[in-house]
Write a structure and sequence with these properties.
2-enoyl-CoA Hydratase, Chain A, domain 1; about 260 residues; 4-stranded mixed beta sheet; 6-stranded mixed beta sheet; alpha/beta; binds coenzyme A
Length: about 260
């Protein structure tokens, strides 16, 4: 199943990982996280791969973690597929290019913080509704977002969890370039080809140096966020938010302090 939901193709030095579950807005389940983690780990050791590209389908990048999985198979620790994915993407030695069309929600946004070049369609929308779900931010976003844009702008995105557009994402500094919708994958691929033609060892070194000063703190932050996230999944607030999503109603948090 995971082989279809995450497509993996290698050509011209580029490993393309395509998220392909359009009927669920490309929500990432356990098998998909595992397939993404495996693909990233394999790419690191495969000499045929010089660049990794991550994309979704024509009108959706990903709606984030599968919310049904949060109820039926929540992450339990560092060995969970989601944590394996976050470790793999945040420590990848080779450059990662993202092509984002349409929706990017939750980890669909925070994974972009670990990509090197991020191309998005002009109609793409972004949202990090972790707090809205009674959860907490993940993927090192509590360290990386304030570094990129300052506390107050990061806090707005994380505490209010509202949808924002491609222009705002670009202004805030989490996107490399906005492309016309329909041209995103082509732009990302041509940049990936350009990267693949660069001297690979020099690219890897530069990427590593770019992260050197915050890498240890990032590892620690991802682990701490992960621990807190697992606890939050057991909270009454998260239970209310997840039930509300399943029942297609607005959550009511007024009874919790
Ligand atoms: N997990 C599980 N299923 C999801 C999902 C997710 N993250 N996102 C969408 N789906 C499913 C919907 O339940 C629906 O399934 P159904 O057709 O079997 O009922 C299908 O995908 C289509 O979604 P729908 O809500 O009808 O589409 P929409 O265009 O109205 O809204 C979203 C799209 C992404 C805005 C909305 O689905 C949403 O808010 N999803 C949750 C996003 C989220 O909170 N992610 C986790 C962040 S930590």
């Amino acid at each position: 199943m995971s082989a279809e939901l995450i497509r993996s193709d290698i050509g011209e030095g580029i490993l393309t990982l395509s998220i392909n579950r359009p009927d669920k807005k490309n929500a990432l389940n356990l098998h998909m996280y595992k397939a993404l983690a495996d693909g990233l780990i394999r790419a690191d050791g495969d000499e045929a791969v010089r660049v990794i590209m991550i994309r979704g389908t024509a009108d959706c990048f990903t709606s984030g973690n599968d919310l049904a999985d949060f109820l039926s198979a929540p992450p339990t620790g560092p060995e969970s597929p989601v944590m394996q994915f976050l470790t793999a993407i945040s420590t990848a030695r080779k450059p990662i290019v993202a092509a984002v069309n349409g929706l990017a929600v939750g980890v669909g946004v925070t994974m972009l913080l670990h990509c090197d070049l991020v191309y998005v369609g002009s109609g793409a929308t972004f949202q990090m509704p972790f707090v809205n779900l009674g959860l907490c931010p993940e993927a090192g976003s509590t360290l990386l977002l304030p570094r990129i844009m300052g506390h107050q702008r990061a806090a707005e995105l994380l505490l209010l969890g509202e949808v924002f557009n491609a222009d705002k994402a670009h202004t805030l500094g989490i996107v490399t370039e906005i492309c016309p919708d329909g041209n995103v994958v082509e732009t990302a691929r041509s940049r990936a080809l350009q990267l693949a033609a660069q001297p690979a060892a020099a690219v890897r070194l530069a990427k590593n140096l770019l992260r050197r000063d915050y890498a240890p703190q990032l590892r620690e932050t991802i682990a701490e966020e992960g621990r807190q996230f697992i606890e939050r999944l057991k909270s009454p607030e998260a239970a209310e938010a997840l039930q509300a999503f399943m029942q297609r109603r607005k959550p009511d948090f007024s009874k919790f302090n």
